[in-house]
Amino acid sequence: MKKTAGFTLIELMIVIAIISILAAIAVPQYNDYVRRAALQEAFTSLADFRVRLEQFYQDNRAYGTVGEATPCGHDGTANRINFAPAGARFSYSCALNGPAGSENQAFLVTATGSGASATGHVFTLDNNNGKATTLFKGAAAGKSCWLVAGGEC
């Protein structure tokens, strides 16, 4: 009698079950990895903006002009710091937030996630290098650091 070659239905179902279990574990881990990689863009850009604002302050003795639509890094001339890198997954904004009468002596730069893997994240950086996470994975965070993976600094 000749034995037929091939797989039985049971063997095929076992392989499909194993692949399904592995995919159920791997896909969320991969998505989290992509999200964490996207967050690095915000951290790098915020740190870069802080350095450029400090350089601007050294030249102008102020972080910007109060009352401007884009106040940070603007001295009323064409000397303006670009807060919108091309192709960014975050949108950036800057506000002067010093005490009354000296508003141009402090700033707060905010990075708000706008790309698919960055949506639901908001990070800030101030002139004292104070880092904060106000929104993380779509939930309010209120942490005084930049969160990446967990809920603790």
Shape: elongated
State the distance separating the first and last CA atoms. 69 Å
Point out poorly predicted stretches.
none
- How much of the sequence is in beta strands? 15-25%
| Main sheet summary | 5 strands, antiparallel
Category from helices, strands and their pairing: alpha+beta
H and E order: HEEEEE
Domain count, please report it.
1
Task: Give a concise summary.
With 153 residues, this protein is an alpha+beta fold. Helices cover 34% and strands 20% of the residues.
Report on this model:
With 153 residues, the protein is of the alpha+beta class. The protein has one domain (10-143). Helices cover 34% and strands 20% of the residues. The protein has one helix at 9-60; strands at residues 90-96, 107-113, 122-126, 131-136, 139-143. It has a 5-stranded antiparallel sheet with strand order 1-2-3-4-5, with helices on one face. Strand 2 (107-113) and strand 3 (122-126) form a beta hairpin. The longest helix has 52 residues, at 9-60. The mean pLDDT is 88.
Task: Give keywords.
153 residues; alpha+beta; five-stranded antiparallel β-sheet; 34% helix
